[in-house]
Amino acid sequence: MAEDRRKLFTLIATILGSTIVFLDGTIVNVALPAISDDLDAGLADQQWIVEAYMLATVALLLVGGALGDQFGRRRMFVIGLVGFGITSVLCAIAPTSEILIGSRALQGLTGALLVPGSLAILTATFEGAERGKAIGTWTAWTGIATVFGPAGGGALVEALSWRAIFWVNIPLIVGCIVLARAYVRESVDPGADRAIDWLGISLSAVGLGGPVYALIEQPREGWGSPMVYLPLIGGAALFALFLLWESRYRHAMLDLSLFRVRNFAITNLETLIVYAGLIGAFFFVTLFLQQTAGYSPLAAGFATTPISLLLFVLSPRFGKIAMSTGPRTPMCVGPIVAGAGLLLLTRVGADADYVTEVLPGVLVFGLGLSATVAPLTATALNSVEQRHAGIASGINNGVSRMAGLLAIAVLGALISGQFGSTVDSEIAGASPAPAPEAQSALDDAKENPFVPPDTDGLAATDADRVAAAATEGAESAFHLAMVVNGVLMIAGGIVAGFGIQNPRRREEQIAPRAAPAGECARCAQDARDGQPAEHERPAEPSPA
User: Fold this and answer.
1) Could you tell me which residues come within 8 angstroms of residue 309 by beta carbon, excluding any fewer than 6 positions away?
2) pTM of the full predicted structure?
3) Domain check: are 63 and 153 in the same one?
4) Do 56 and 82 share a domain, yes or no?
5) Which of 99, 241, 307, 530 has the most CB atoms at less than 10 Å from its CB?
6) What are phi and psi of 196, to 5 degrees?
């Protein structure tokens, strides 16, 4: 009973620690309009408030997993919690958008220690089918945080202030530290390399940051500006150099050899595609519902709550199904269904009725997402050896954050371009031509496409034209975003359908230490290497 109790509270601690990170990745979305009003932040600044956090998290996520393997997973988990608390306070008291963006970057650096640490702790604590259930439960609750963030954030913004979304982290962090210190056993990888790949960290951060900066600034600067094409080309070149460096450096933070395992490689490819659609969709749905459709922060937040409920009920069940029958079917069908849900959201307009227009797409999307997240996470971890759990979870979470990072930047550029071209075509056909003041109002609106333009001081006719053109542009831009995100989700499902291999069924019930289903993928490789299969090797001593 004592061991069961320890495992239960270990699971709770890992869920709570990861939930804080995921919550801050989404809860801020619903607060962006309030932040924009308070700190005078346009679309580019709103993107950076989200992107700075994600970029910093991606830059150190692989290192976070490796540090846990080297110096102790519980130790790095607690250090990450303390750092996240300090940086949350900095975000809460930020007086300008620039300081808030910088504080969000620091917050992302500390968050990089928590997510891979959580999954590595679970992998070291649970085995076999019990591990699959634990990961399914972890996925359900952290998935709920990803989509419940807007609802909770909306309530805090309406009741208090946007700053409350950062203050709320503090009691959660304190409780998580208490649980971790009391119940989580320390675990390390005795063979882990203790060198830190500082050059790899720098190359990956600049290599990702350059294109993201270029894409966010492109609507304002234009493709011909050196402020756009230089960081875009330079960043891509540096990221290619990062991959080359990681393939050759002895102490590389990214173990590219893991991608030789088919299921691990395909799972991460699917993660890249699916999470681009997922994170991009949530970012722009929340903005559109508030800024264009006129939903309050609370209403916009609760608009996606059905997804939370579906994840809570269905995600653990799909995790069990994937462990017993194989992950390919849920990893294929789930994203396709979720993509269909996003395509349904192309019916949403500026006067969107929630029940008839928004809810159907949300329900279909939530159903597909519930079938996807648990099998995807479990397959990424179970396809590699347990001693690589920290770096494997770091890679998989890094890929998902990188997907969202690029999706928001690319979609921001597409939305701005679509809004601008739609508005220009609407005004071009107007007769008589709008006054210069009306054109100036539309030019200002291009800085923040979903926000209704300021028509004060315009003649009634021009004010109506400007408002109508901006509404048409916002709807067109939002529909384009949902199509792109929906197609990405469907493409991810197709990749899984053709690429994922279900592990072969073995008579595991007679084995003294049955391996999780996903580990079968490497048994054949062990045999080719002349080594005993993982489940036939002597059991490692339990971590102290």
Assistant:
1) 366
2) 0.74
3) yes
4) yes
5) 307
6) -105, 130
